[in-house]
């Protein structure tokens, strides 16, 4: 079964209207592989602006949301609000949400369930820290994170799983293509054993962690790497090279 290559750009806490406007002009004018699904994760305050400026062939994602539609939750945004801005995706469980802001597996699971019930697509992030990899518990960590997400998913067609080894995010260290492929392969086997063979074959598992124009082609050639979640490089013109990694 062919899985459509998926590239997410996670802009994080970066950009202003001027710089993001220039980036979107570059993207809109670029020749981009039509066989790739592209989604840009914008800061929530710019979701409306980005959706109005970015060509309709590109998707837009919020970088986080809360687990309910509305209420007394100062500073939060809901899937209903995200959809009201014409945005169809959300990134959940990013390691910065987990490790900087202390979000638990349980909360990420609840957010995932609510976002999916509200009709958003979810880019669900998992990944181990350096001490966990060095301690030989990578699989234990990512399987536990994946289980909490899987327990909250009914429709897997709206989910993209993003494997991001935390030690490779923003550090300039990239998991080798073989390291990435090994974890993706094990995740697919976990899905086959714990969800279903159909889901294991169809769900896209993308890689994140210092993906650049220089590393993207070899990573993209791995059979279980179905795309990327790109951080810093998604704010630069080289993002176009990454979008065309399979072209």
From TrEMBL:
Q: Which domain of life is it from?
A: Eukaryota
- Which cellular component, as a GO term, is one annotated location? cytosol
Q: What is its EC number?
A: 5.3.1.1
Record keyword Isomerase present:
yes
Q: Which GO terms describe its biological process?
A: gluconeogenesis; glyceraldehyde-3-phosphate biosynthetic process; glycerol catabolic process; glycolytic process
User: Which UniProt key words apply to this protein?
Assistant: Gluconeogenesis, Glycolysis, Isomerase, Lyase
Catalytic function, reaction form: dihydroxyacetone phosphate = methylglyoxal + phosphate; D-glyceraldehyde 3-phosphate = dihydroxyacetone phosphate
Describe which pathway this protein belongs to, using the record's wording: Carbohydrate degradation; glycolysis; D-glyceraldehyde 3-phosphate from glycerone phosphate: step 1/1; Carbohydrate biosynthesis; gluconeogenesis
Q: Does the keyword Lyase apply?
A: yes
GO molecular function annotation: methylglyoxal synthase activity; triose-phosphate isomerase activity
EC category: isomerase
Q: Coiled-coil stretches, from where to where? A: none
HAMAP family registered for this protein in UniProt: TIM_B
The entry assigns this protein to a family as follows: Belongs to the triosephosphate isomerase family.
Instruction: Describe, as the record does, how this protein assembles with itself and its partners.
Output: Homodimer.
Tell me the function of this protein.
It is also responsible for the non-negligible production of methylglyoxal a reactive cytotoxic side-product that modifies and can alter proteins, DNA and lipids.
- Give the PANTHER family listed for this entry: TRIOSEPHOSPHATE ISOMERASE (PTHR21139), TRIOSEPHOSPHATE ISOMERASE B (PTHR21139:SF19)
- The identity of this protein, by name, is Triosephosphate isomerase
Gene source species: Eleginops maclovinus (Patagonian blennie)
Record lineage? Eukaryota, Metazoa, Chordata, Craniata, Vertebrata
């Amino acid at each position: 079964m062919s899985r459509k290559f998926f590239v997410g750009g996670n802009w994080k806490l970066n950009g202003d209207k001027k710089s993001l406007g220039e980036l979107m002009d570059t993207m809109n004018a670029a020749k981009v592989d039509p066989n790739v699904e592209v989604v840009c994760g914008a800061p929530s305050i710019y979701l409306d602006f980005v959706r109005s400026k970015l060509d309709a062939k590109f998707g837009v994602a919020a970088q986080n949301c809360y687990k309910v539609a509305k209420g007394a939750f100062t500073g939060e945004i809901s899937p209903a609000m995200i959809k009201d801005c014409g945005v169809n995706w959300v990134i959940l469980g990013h390691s910065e949400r987990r490790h900087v802001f202390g979000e638990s597996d349980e909360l990420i699971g609840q957010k995932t369930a609510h976002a999916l019930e509200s009709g958003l697509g979810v880019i669900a992030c998992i990944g181990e820290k350096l001490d966990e990899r060095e301690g030989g518990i990578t699989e234990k960590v990512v399987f536990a994170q994946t289980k909490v997400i899987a327990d909250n998913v009914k429709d897997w067609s709206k989910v993209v799983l993003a494997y991001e080894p935390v030690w490779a995010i923003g550090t300039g260290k990239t998991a080798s293509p073989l390291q990435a492929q090994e974890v993706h392969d094990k995740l697919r086997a976990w899905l086959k054993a714990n969800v279903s063979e159909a889901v294991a074959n169809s769900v896209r598992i993308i890689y994140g962690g210092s993906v650049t124009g220089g590393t993207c082609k070899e990573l993209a050639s791995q059979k279980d790497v179905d795309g990327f979640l790109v951080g810093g490089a998604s704010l630069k013109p080289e993002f176009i090279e990454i979008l065309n990694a399979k072209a």
